[in-house]
Design goal:
Blueprint (H helix, E strand, L loop, with lengths): L1 E7 L3 E5 L4 E10 L9 E5 L2 E2 L5 E7 L4 E10 L8 E9 L2 E4 L3 E6 L3 E4 L4 E4 L4 E8 L6 E6 L2 E2 L12 E5 L6 E9 L2 E4 L3 E6 L4 E8 L4 E6 L10 E8 L13 E6 L4 E4 L7 E10 L2 E2 L6 E4 L10 E8 L2 E7 L9 E9 L6 E6 L3 E5 L7 E9 L2 E2 L6 E7 L2 E5 L9 H31 L17 H13 L3 H6 L10 E9 L3 E9 L4 E9 L6 H14 L12 E5 L8 E7 L6 H10 L8 H20 L12 E3 L5 E3 L14 E3 L3 E3 L6 H6 L4 H16 L14 H6 L12 H10 L10 H14 L12 E3 L6 E2 L13 E2 L18 E2 L9 H7 L28 E4 L11
Helix pairs in contact: 6-8, 6-11, 8-10
């Protein structure tokens, strides 16, 4: 064909996803009927389309002319089909192209540029970019920081592509953008901007000695994150460390707040280069520039070499060579010390010369001499003393270096015998003291070593019991302080019961008093020696815990159970008056009379748990089951971390069973632990964040509406717990940092504790305690009296009302209930309140006046709280 020309080109088609699209082009040419038509090729964005559904046909328009029509059809158009299209034909060596058309899809915006993870330096400006496209256009973008919008659609920055310019961050944040057109809204992926500290400044030497450099520096600003430690590196000046860290002569981490460090064991008079980088919980800063420092001069390492002497008339010529090895400075000269029968110990400075003539008054007199070199730091070691004996005028005879006096073996044996005797006596004294201390613990009577070798009956019973278990001797030794005789423990009523065990009241008889305790019994049988050793080894570890916010193990009993091969373990713990934290929070919100817990109390609960977990993490102990239900409240409203180690199998219904192996608290477990069952301190940090959320929501279940089996996928998609309505921004920021995807990016418990303590200090003073009307209820004695008063027997009044004119006696049938009187409530009697709680009132009960069971003065709103009080006195919750 000749004179090829496109008379119709593809047009621009605007469609929607999944709809059919058709493009067409038309080509005219001249030629006879027997000439074969050329193929029309379709190109998308300049690239030929392969396997395209191309329908081509020709129409004869005259004797020697024809029209070729090619149609491209896409049955269900998709996003990859968007672009520019045109037709082309090849005729010999000629190419003919149509004009371009295109396919555009209307729908939700799609992103070509999204935020990504990056690190920035605290308070240093940077920019983020986001681009989204239609059609339909225009597309506008809203930026979000940690889920909170930063701009509105009417702002100039909202038009895509959008650039967000930030003057700096002082905390790690997550940024994303939402793109909107008239078809709807689409969300981009999230990018975490990690805030790192500025590099240290003013790296300098405070003091320089021959073998040490005392450095100091100013740590850079780390935003809201405290500088945890700094790394100090040193190398020989001029050497590169590109080949690897083996070029470093010093690489050490220094804990803050100390911002100084001493580099020791250096060589004198040597040039070194040092640098510093500091770390926060978010990561390390950049290194400071290398600073070159030179150590001070030292003395020569060795004495002068090849010291010789010869007689020359009445003179003795002493000669030597420069000291071998390191001079440790700049050589200043040599010192010669000599003596003769007529002259005693003359010291002469010879300068840099290597020979010296000693003038003798008597030619045949003897002479002793020695030589040393010196630098600016002082004299080096002396060469051995040499003596020139002049018996013959022509010959000088050397006497070798003077020998030290012979070693006396007699005194060596005496000293060794005395040392051995003292060591044996000290060992016996320590051993007897420890034995006496062990024998008198937990109520065991004492019968010390007698001449016949008898031991206490207490130790005999313990030893017999442990021998029957078949455990190792090493573990037996550790358990001497842990095991408690079963007959010293009296069990009381059951406080709670779960799937794997129960908790009971108990009394532990000690030397001169009886201690109220909580006793945990396990329903799971221990069937093998290995399981028993694991259980007892955990007990020995827990016995060493000593922190006010960590539940301390008092001891372990082993009681025999019929039909079981091994005894059943009984764990003895301190009695916690107010039970677990989750129940306390739940009752404050969902009890019969709800009460609002102040923010000070909630933040204090979080701070107590952070202190306890910091202690455990410093002990290299991983909790693996941190949650509000596993934290206990004592009589002073202090929180203790509990249910670790021995209690890790006592779970409740908040667990998702994974296979047949174990139950897992999936809503509290870190995402990496869900994936591969690896637990670290940073996985405990994740659980602590969830526990903070429980406290902030006053006992709500995490991830409401999400099934346990869906949690892992939910977290993988980037979802996290939302900020509670009345939660402080600073507290939620701490929670969110606990749920960062990478464990190394999460804060340490030390950092969390510091931030929570600061938040607690910044909160205003709590409500005046005088405005709180507090009622304690005890099942044994129910006399009414003034707040803080005592009954005639001397015990604290179990029920205290302020502002009431008459008193009554109440019989309590629900001792574990939390009853909180509604605020602003008047014209009710105490008996009405009891009936609303299903708490029967005895027949001898007197009705209180109708003014109010929650009496208040004008402009004051008191609160009545009925709490179980087994020990008598009661304090305000924030005390």
């Amino acid at each position: 064909l000749k004179d090829l020309e496109f008379v119709k080109s593809p047009t621009t088609v605007i469609s929607s996803l999944g709809k059919p699209v058709t493009l067409q082009c038309k080509l005219n040419g001249k030629g006879s009927e027997d000439v074969e038509s050329p193929d029309v090729i379709w190109l998308k964005d300049g690239v030929p389309l392969e396997h395209a559904e191309n329908n081509q046909y020709q129409v004869l328009t005259g004797s020697n002319s024809r029209t070729i029509i090619s149609t491209l059809r896409i049955e269900k158009v998709q996003l990859p089909d968007m672009g520019y299209y045109k037709c082309a034909v090849l005729s010999g060596s000629n190419e003919t192209f149509s004009d371009e058309g295109g396919i555009q899809l209307e729908g939700l915006p799609h992103f070509s540029l999204e935020p990504y993870h990056m690190t920035v330096v605290a308070n240093v400006s940077f920019s983020l970019h986001c681009a989204a496209h239609g059609p339909p256009e225009p597309v506008r973008v809203i930026w979000l920081q940690d889920g909170h919008p930063l701009n509105s659609l009417s702002d100039p920055v909202a038009l895509s592509p959008s650039t967000l310019n930030l003057t700096g961050l002082n905390r790690t944040s997550t940024f994303s953008c939402e793109a909107q057109n008239r078809k709807g809204v689409a969300s981009s992926r999230s990018g975490t901007i990690t805030v790192l500290p500025n590099k240290p400044q003013d790296v300098r030497a405070v003091e320089i000695t021959q073998s040490a450099l005392h450095l100091s520096w100013e740590p850079g600003f780390g935003g809201i994150y405290q500088i945890v430690n700094c790394s100090v590196q040193a190398k020989h000046s001029g050497e590169s460390i590109i080949a690897g860290p083996h070029q470093l002569i010093h690489n050490q981490t220094v804990s803050m707040p100390r911002s100084s460090h001493i580099i020791k064991d250096l060589e004198p008079h040597t040039l070194y280069a040092v640098r510093v980088a500091c770390h926060s919980s978010q990561g390390p800063s950049d290194w400071s520039p290398w600073v070159e420092l030179r150590t001070k001069e030292g003395v020569p390492e060795n004495p002068p070499a090849n010291v010789t002497a010869k007689l020359n008339g009445t003179e003795v010529l002493v000669m030597w060579e420069e000291p071998p090895g390191k001079l440790n400075g700049q050589l200043q000269g040599y010192m010669v010390e000599y003596s003769t029968p007529a002259t005693q110990q003359v010291v002469v400075n010879t300068g840099l010369g290597t020979e010296f003539a000693i003038n003798l008054s008597v030619p045949l007199s003897n002479v002793s001499f020695r030589v040393c070199a010196y630098t600016g730091a002082g004299q080096g070691p002396w060469a051995p003393i040499q003596t020139l004996t002049l018996n013959v005028p022509e010959m000088g005879e050397f006497r070798g270096p003077s020998s030290p006096p012979a070693f006396s073996w007699h005194w060596f044996y005496v000293v060794m015998a005395i040392t051995g005797a003292v060591s044996i006596a000290v060992f016996l004294a320590v051993y007897v003291a420890k034995l006496r201390r062990k024998e008198t613990r937990f109520g065991c009577y004492t019968q010390y070593f007698s001449p016949r070798g008898q031991v206490s009956a207490c130790n005999s019973r313990k030893e017999a019991r442990m021998n029957s278990l078949g455990i190792s001797d090493e573990l037996k030794q550790k358990l001497q302080d842990v095991m408690v005789d079963r007959h010293k423990l009296t069990l009381g009523k059951t406080l709670g019961e779960g799937e794997f065990g129960s908790v009971m009241e108990g009394l532990l008889t000690q030397e001169e008093f009886v201690l109220k305790v909580a006793v945990k019994t396990m329903k799971i049988a221990i069937c093998t020696r290995s399981e028993m050793e694991d259980f007892l080894r955990e007990a020995a570890c827990m016995k060493e815990f000593d922190h006010p916010n960590v539940m301390r193990l008092l001891g372990v009993c082993l009681q025999t159970v019929e039909s079981e091969g091994y005894p059943s373990p009984v764990v003895i713990l301190p009695y916690m008056k107010h039970g677990d934290l989750h129940s306390y929070l739940l009752y404050s919100r969902l009890g019969d009379c709800p009460v609002y817990l102040p923010s000070q109390m909630l933040v204090k609960f979080m701070t107590d748990i952070a202190r306890g977990m910091e202690y455990l993490s410093n002990k290299n102990f991983i909790h693996r089951d941190l949650a509000a239900r596993n934290c206990m409240l004592n009589e002073n409203m202090n929180v203790c971390v509990a249910d670790f180690g021995l209690s890790k199998k006592i779970y409740n219904g908040d667990y998702y069973r994974q296979g047949r192996i174990s139950k897992m608290p999936v809503k509290w477990i870190a995402i990496e632990s869900l994936a591969d069952r690896v637990y670290t301190t940073k996985s405990d940090v994740w659980s602590f964040g969830v526990t903070m959320w429980e406290i902030a929501t006053r006992g709500q279940t995490p991830y409401p509406g999400v099934e346990n089996s869906e949690i892992y996928d939910y977290l993988r998609q980037g979802n996290r717990l939302k900020q509670p309505p009345d939660c402080l921004d600073s507290i939620y920021s701490l929670m969110f940092s606990c749920w960062l995807l990478s464990p190394k990016d999460r804060p340490s418990f030390e950092s969390l504790r510091c931030e929570l303590e600061k938040a607690l200090e910044d909160l205003p003073d709590p409500q005046d305690p005088d405005e709180i009307l507090y009622v304690n209820m005890d099942e044994s004695s129910m006399e009414l009296g003034a707040v803080g008063g005592r009954d005639p027997t001397g015990r604290s009044s179990p029920l205290c009302l302020k502002g009431l004119e008459s008193v009554t006696t109440v019989e309590v049938h629900h001792p574990n209930r939390y009853v909180l009187c509604p605020q602003h409530e008047t014209n009710r009697t105490l008996s009405d309140s009891m009936e609303s709680l299903d708490m029967p009132v005895s027949s001898s009960t007197a009705t209180l006046p109708l003014q109010s069971s929650c009496h208040s003065t004008p402009n004051r709103t008191p609160t009545v709280e009925l709490l179980e009080d087994r020990n008598g006195s009661k304090k305000m919750p924030w005390q």
